[in-house]
Amino acid sequence: MATREVYVSRLQADGLYKVFGRAPDEAVRRLEAGADRGELRADGTTAAVIDASFTVEPGQIFVVMGLSGSGKSTLLRMLNGLLEPTAGRVLFDGRDLTSLPARDLRRVRATKISMVFQHFALFPHRSVLENAAYGLEVQGVPRAEREQRAAEALELCGLGGWAASWPNELSGGMQQRVGLARALATDADLLLMDESFSALDPLIRRDMQDQLLELQKRLKKTIVFITHDLNEAMRLGDRIAVMRDGRIVQLGSAEDILLRPEGDYVASFIQDVDRSRVLTASAVMTAPDRPDAGQCDCPSVAPDTTVAELCAVSARVPHPVAVRDPEGNVVGTVPQQKLVAFVGGDDEPQGRPAACGDAARPAAVKTASQNTEKEAAHA
User: Rg of the chain's alpha carbons, rounded to an integer?
Assistant: First the structure.
């Protein structure tokens, strides 16, 4: 009889607690019984992470977002064993990291899990190539091989011509790329990124986000990314965990969190997010509104096209925009009424769907489209 293969996630956190201070085990029992953080703090105990559970699938960017003190960095350090959980466990490819002997855990960190820090952590006395190769050096990889792999990683990160340079000759963004190249050179299955872009100025930060997304398309790494920036979380995350006071208060996609916030805390967090840059055509499309939808030569969009980009297309199309899957099939349409409501129009247009040749354009869609085109021209 054939055995049935059991699927396991790349990473699983199962009821993780981290308590600092006196009697941590007793503190966990009190938390499980309903005590809050404040009660423990009065007794000289800090509950940094409380009952955190989630899974991360292969090739996914999982973002943990929260304000300073929410517990997100402590949580990250439990995922690779830098901090031992007070309770709970971490499974990596089905293997319980929390039960491993110290030697085996160090081996996993050296070969399977890489970390990219907020403050670059480059060695000033080593060249860019030597910095990128450092993780391989720790693994005992021969020099020629590690330099070749490090050079390939630098090329991936856009630093192919800087291998012989010193860290102090590089800008902040370039130094962070070296840190990313060092993590990629080890070919680790899991990347942990702790506020990796927060020390960069806004323009360089966005460039690094673009770089990470582009690399992810090619390499399909599994990434846990820590940030306090909601827009960054929404831009990068396939799934997002929102933390508050040590607890995960909502877990879901960017679309889930924007459209269905759980509680006043999350709702207040997302109120200033530019939803048009996060939500996609799949979130606003409806079933095709007429049998000939998509049969003309007008532009169409993909399901993952952002609403901001969609507005630019809608401004040029005299009827609901067709949404096509990768095979070219029409899976939905986006009526202008939907876009008007989304971008803040006061009144939804009434009457029949427009046909090719109709000239009317809702003002809100026009404005959103013009804004998008101005930003593109500025970029």
Answer: 24
